[in-house]
Give the backbone structure.
Amino acid sequence: MHPRIRITALAALSGLLFLGAGCITFKGSAKKADGGLYYTSDRGEKWAQRGAIPTTTGQKQTLGNVNIRTFAQDPQDLKALYAGTDSEGAYYTWDGGSAWFPLGQPFAGAPVDAIAVHPKEKCALFVAAGKKVFRSSDCTRSWQSSDFDVTVSALAIDSTSPAVLYAGNTK
């Protein structure tokens, strides 16, 4: 796939997912939305909240009351998404957002500011949490970290030269 087409596909998905809290208009009627993740498959006409978290106890859990800070799509698997929250760590889905699972340590209960997925290497993922950028090359089984003097708030991988990773911060 041509890199420009890949970026366009990600930009289109970005326009289809609504993150955070606020009002959403559904065919002319404004409804107050809580936190979580929203999905549309008809270019924004109808929105539905997504974010079920399966549990072994059968208790219903959801991302509906969680503030989402960032999300990233796996360029090699369009149904694989990662979401970072402001205080609940990071989550992933393999089914386009119907069911979400926590990434676990080292992010559990922490704010996650940015996520970047390698465009060519399967299972390579970067996560910014506080003053660290974590890297996994084995599908999140293990993590290595780099320390920064500032909080990292944005990550981007150069799609034409994926060995290049950009990290941004806020004041």
